[in-house]
Amino acid sequence: MFELIIRKANLPDGRTGIDIAVENGKIAAIEHQIEASAGTEINATGRLVTPPFIDPHFHMDATLSLGLPRMNISGTLLEGISLWGELRPSLTQEALVERALRYCDLAVSQGLLAIRSHVDTSDPRLITVEALVAVREKVKPYIDLQLVAFPQDGYYRAEGGVESLNRALDMGVDIVGGIPHFERTMDDGRASVEALCRIAADRGLPVDMHCDETDDPMSRHIETLAAQTMRFGLQGRVAGSHLTSMHSMDNYYVSKLIPLMAEAEINVIPNPLINIMLQGRHDTYPKRRGMTRVRELMDAGLNVSFGHDCVMDPWYSMGSGDMLEVGHMAIHVAQMAGIADKKTVFDALTVNSAKTMGLEGYGMMKGCNADFVVLQAADPIEALRLKPTRLWVIRRGKLIAQSKPRIAELFLEGRPTKIDSGRDYVPMTPS
């Protein structure tokens, strides 16, 4: 007898009618028609059962702070940074923890059970670090939370930035961050990449840098990051986030850059919602939208995963903690509308992000952690189209969130009385 069996599940890889048995928080069996009973059984009725969604790029210290101390009137990245600087002196650990925990509640309801959050280290008080380290411990039973030491005002540019980042790492932050394009000069940016990669190598830590989040095609710190990755033997442990300048670079240079990134095994994290909102602000028309070259990077074999980045904070007034919203936008902006494209986008919200974060035991195979989301959709393509209800969210075999199906009632003569927008409106598509 198992602890839990999910029956009649559709899996992201296309398998249908699958039963999933759970014992001791792990997948004990995953096959057609498991002949056994369980303490709890869930009938997925041909719905998609996926491993949980993952956000590899977020700012939990700023989330839900929208309107404090004022709104971002221009809607630009630079005003957002300035606004955060205005808010920072008034931050308290208690308020930071409260907002972060509220966001984590929202994340669980959306089936988002792993998050990598950048934590601003520019304030020497480091109350952001203290708060997020405390939150990481509180949510450990239900969310894998990784923290990045992020020198928001510049590693060299901010007074005391070098010391503050090192102190944050000493306090238990997991990953070395950076923002080379925000240093005073290109050369300072290059030097910061080298210094931060050296720190990561010395401490045995991964690297995740905000890199070239600009429309300037001459912002080429990703080239330096790839080179320093190989210099310090950090292959596979480094992520370049945003990389929006690649949107504006000429094709010849990119033809040299992408193979260098592939050689360094760089993980790439575009943030579709934020990138298209904040970039191209100096353009009239034609207007650039600023997301990096997703298809070309994927085609070159790089691991690409999508981040939400912000939810209701100085940079982004929208957001819902729904990674399918992120993927939905990525399909449009990257023009990845084909069937295979959409499956690839779904992977960028799940398995690719698990690789970026180095998560162990993630997946839908025997022996993996029993972490699942049951969606009111039949397959990944439908999930990305509908952004459907999360019917059940399960962590290590235990139910941690549940929602009722979204069913509309109609009162129209001669027409159906109820509509399931997913199940009742699925065109036949080739596999």
From TrEMBL:
Top-level taxonomic group: Bacteria
Pfam families: Amidohydro_3
Top-tier EC class: hydrolase
Protein name per Swiss-Prot or TrEMBL: Cytosine deaminase
A molecular function (GO) term: metal ion binding
Domain Amidohydrolase, first and last residues per copy: 41-392
Keywords: Hydrolase, Metal-binding
NCBIfam families the record matches: PRK07572.1
InterPro entries assigned to the protein according to its UniProt record, in alphabetical order: Amidohydro_3, Metal-dep_hydrolase_composite, Metal_Hydrolase, Metallo-hydrolase_Enzymes
SUPFAM superfamilies for the chain: Composite domain of metallo-dependent hydrolases (SSF51338), Metallo-dependent hydrolases (SSF51556)
A GO biological-process term: cytosine catabolic process
EC number, as in UniProt: 3.5.4.1
